[in-house]
Amino acid sequence: MNNSIDVAIIGAGPYGLSLAAYLREAKIEFRIFGKTMDSWKNKMPPGMLLKSEPWASSLYDPASSFTLKQYCAESGVEYQDSFLPVPLETYVAYGEAFQARLVQKIEDKILIGIKRSNAGLHAIFDDGEVLNARNIIIAVGNHHFKYYPSHLSHLPSEVLSHSGDYGPLDPLSGKEVIIFGAGASATDLAALLSDNRIKVTLVARDSRLPFMPTPKIRPKSFQTLRKLVSPLKPIKRLLNANSGIGNTWLLKVCAEAPWIIHSLPEEVRIDIVQTTLGPLGHWSVKDRVEGQIPLHLGRSLESAEISNGKVILRLSTPEGAKESLQADHLIAATGYKMDLKCLEFLKPIITHIHMKESTPILTANYESSIPGLYFIGPVAANSFGPVCRFVFGAIYPARNITKHILKKRNKTQVRAGDGILSKTSAMSDYTPKALGAGKKPSHARDLLLVSACVPMPYRVLRCAQASGANIFVLGTDGAKGLKRSRYCKAFIRTDRQIDGNFDAELAKQINDQIETFNIDVVLPSDPYSTRSLILIRDLLNAPCFPMPDLSNFDLLNNKWRFYLLCKSFGIKCPNSKLFQNTQELIHEIGPNGLASPQIAKPLSMENSMGVIKLMPETYQKQLESISYHPIMLQDFIEGEDIGASVFCRNGKITSFICHKLSKETYYPFFDQKIYNDISEILGHLKVDGIFNFDMRRTPDGQVYFLECNPRVFWKIAMSMLAGVNFISSGLSNQNCDFSAEAKSQPTIVRFPKAILLQTLVAPWTLGLGTLKMLKYLYSDPIPYFCEVFKIESTR
Question: Does residue 723 contact residue 747 with C-beta atoms inside 8 Å?
Fold first, then answer.
């Protein structure tokens, strides 16, 4: 037998069988282990009825070719979508027929261990086989996670069992039985035991037994009217809160959009899981329990003990009175508590699985922190919501995991053809060719965007998304607003500061995400993350987006050193002086004061922070607000602000744009003199990466260089809308000079504030740049409005 496989599925219940059907249709090689419908067949009592609606109880294959309704029709079994509960025996037979038709071979062996290796995962089975699997999907259901209250856990198995242990009820024949619990398993067992003439008492903490409402059968009158409104059925379905797991709007979202639940903050998501869909008996059982068997409701369990071979429960009533009940056997119908430590086969790797509330933290593709290890079914509920507890939820992991595995397989094939670095390649081996070929990637790359804030990183995120990439974000609390973007696949919070200093722990966290999300490229998104990644990129297991080395970064990022560099090349700059503190500056100004406006600025702060235009009449008061040192003082240049942005490799410019802002409009242009000056600077330094230059242009056309930002820049998204995507440039392997063809006039782009009214009043006047901006905004509107109303997180 082949000991290497694409996918190993552990568990052959509804989730495992549905996934297998999807994999088989996609022609993905897999093996599935377990016993078909084992828990349903051997751990549930004969005569039980399914709690879920018949229409919501089908298993899934891509073509929906074998539903429960179709099986019943083929088998001559009576079926109704809602009004006729599905017997357990019918459902087990349906699952076995689904397996025989759409899955075929199931291997009856037990997984006893999982280990990791460079080649993937090793699954070790009880017959001695060691299977090398690139992906393992855990679909084990509830049975491993039976929960007993602390007051009961000390009782021996002779007098205590769990409702999940049944099975035929024959061993209880002739015994007195107490059931402790209020949900479906408690009431179902109570009704079945009573039907089998077994003396049973039900005890519950709840003051009443909750049951599903009895479905209402619509009258057959008004048939003509119904036919007339039948075209409105799609609208009615849209407005109807009914879903496969319940009849509220929250449950409808949980049932039909688990990816929305997955995108919620962790604390909100877990609260939904813990507080929705509590114990609830099936409506068909209500009349068989209430008034038919003794009920002790609203009771608190004080203790449980054994005396003369019988179990004795000490209870207290809501009024504080004490009660004592005894029976031959106690059944704890107390549900299940998910805890990965209960799965013995995970012991060798359990410390490598990131968890919350003892359950795995999963990606949008159901993948855990161990690449290739997936969890589906009830154990995934804390990540995807309560739908994971129902058969109705099996379609989502079946569909998503199949797509994800296909994507990973295609990516591996592409890598084999275009020379993209493997995940274990060291950064010292990085070459531009390693990032792929072409301005538009031939496949969607997975990028990890590292961020310490929101506004500028969001613009970088949008440029990366436009280049065809999937973006995952590792960020501080200051960056958590990025998860509001629909293009953020996952936000991973880091407790590291990302402050531009060397941080080996940050490198370790980045490597964890590289492994978890199969990251191709690590992308800086602000000044802090850029310098941090420059310092640690040799420690990372994936290539970083091109950046200069540390010495050139610090040279260009320092305004004074950049001024001296420009002077050495004869490039125009405002006359500048450097002062160590304000006292030196005041002494330089002297008693006669300023003759003309001057600009005071720090050496390396970002986004014009600390920059002050000192006016002759107010400079003394303005100097009091300066809290930084040293201080650079420049002549103020009359004219307009302009900028130029480039991407270059080894000092050769491959992308270039000049721009100015006027009346909420971004005007791109080309200037040969600016291009030549920047080429001289960057060519001398032989640097890689994105660089943005701020300048002033006088009324007579002279250009003065002010500073350089050796990193992504604030207007990077505007440049993209104008026609130059610098992130795409960095993801390509083109190593040629900026072409004459690229010097053609790019698109003028208006800022949102300038076009919103125009859009409402005169939409026919919108130009190409305006339409691009509208598409940019309305494809992901929440981050924009969060920024406008200042509710986004910032550093």
Answer: yes
**Phi-psi map region of 530: left, alpha, beta (phi>0 left; psi -120 to 50 alpha):** alpha
Reference 748, options 680, 668, 632, 634; nearest CA is: 668
Looking up tokens 């129902």 gives: 390
User: What's the start-to-end Cα distance of the chain, in Å?
Assistant: 56
CA distance 112 to 69: 37
CA torsion 545→546→550→554, rounded to 10°? -100
Write down the H helix ranges in 518-626.
527-536, 550-557, 559-568, 582-589, 619-623
Residue at token pair 């397989």: 409
Output the DSSP codes for 36-64.
Answer: TTHHHHHSS-TT-B-SS-GGG-----TT-
Question: Whole-angstrom Cα distance, residue 378 to residue 387?
Answer: 8
Write down how long the chain is: 795
Q: How far is CA 355 from CA 338, 492, 512, 555, in A?
A: 11, 13, 14, 43
**pLDDT tens-digit map of 292-336:** 999 999 999 999 999 988 999 999 998 889 999 999 999 999 999
Query: What angle do helix axes 781-788 and 768-778 make, rounded to 10 degrees?
Result: 90
306 bridge partner residues: 311
Q: Distance between CA atoms of 688 and 348, rounded to whole angstroms? A: 43
For 284-348, the DSSP string reads: GGHHHHTTTS-EE-SPEEEEEEEETTEEEEEEE-TTS-EEEEEESEEEE---B---GGG-GGGGG
Contact predicate 211/184, CB 8 Å: no
Q: What is the pTM of this model?
A: 0.57
- Write the pLDDT tens digit of every residue in 541-569: 999 999 999 999 999 999 999 999 999 99
Report the SS3 class of residue 479: helix
The CA distances from residue 727 to 89, 546, 719, in Å, are 58, 10, 11
The answer to whether residues 516 and 404 touch, using CB atoms and an 8 Å cutoff, is: no
d(CA 275, CA 293): 29
pLDDT in tens, 62-101: 999 999 999 999 999 999 887 788 999 999 999 999 999 9
Spatial CA neighbour of 718 closest among 743, 688, 754 = 754
